[in-house]
Specification:
By secondary structure, the chain is α+β, with helices and mostly antiparallel strands. The protein has one helix and three strands; from the N terminus they run βββα. The chain is elongated, with a radius of gyration of 13 Å.
Length: 73
Amino acid sequence: MDELKRCPFCGGRASMFYREGRHGLFGYVQCEECEAKTRTKTVYGEPDNPQFWEQAPYYELATIWNKRVVANA
């Protein structure tokens, strides 16, 4: 998994999380300080399996979190 950049809003540390819902398992990236987060994404597998964290949905979430938009001045 790509290393997560610091939060673009507050500079806090970000972490990858998952939660179980009625319709499956969902993953997201969230800042530990201001709680800004990505959209949730459906993931598959067992979180206790080390390969779980290498799946495409988590890579995609890390890519979404790490993307920075540069505004034209």
